[in-house]
Design brief:
This protein is an alpha+beta fold. The protein is 40% helix and 26% strand. The chain has helices at 2-18, 27-36, 86-91, 112-120, 124-143, and strands spanning 38-42, 47-49, 57-63, 66-70, 73-78, 83-84, 98-101, 105-111, 154-155.
Length: 156
Amino acid sequence: MGSKRRRENRRYIERLAAAQLFANCTPKELRAIASLCTPVNVRAGRVLTRQGSRGDQCFVVMSGHAVVERDGVIVGHIVDGSVIGELALLSHCPRSATVTAATDMELLVMSCSEFTALRALGIDTTVRRALDEIAHDRRALLERPAIAVEEPVAVS
């Protein structure tokens, strides 16, 4: 029983390490993050974030696909390993886009208080740096003028 659980934990940590947000974390940091994040499964069609609403959590996509809309226009897709909602979490501003699950999804949820707990454990620097980089890229993408395209831009 013990070795099976250790294998499952090791696989879970490996999956965390594959996520863009946690790619530069040490195994020790990943174990702490795993203890703070809440795993959630959602069905296709569920709205994860709504443009203009308050955002006090972000989601790390472990599996699944979502569609990103801004002002009713599809501006991108979210895939495995991506982060959703980081802009609102970092800047305490309203959500910048609506994100809807296009498939069933497996997510990890990190609230403001859980992010604060990372700081208390002394491992927020690595995650914060990654969040800042992701947020910078995401802002640049969202600031581009909307154009009609056949295929939306992939957001990772």
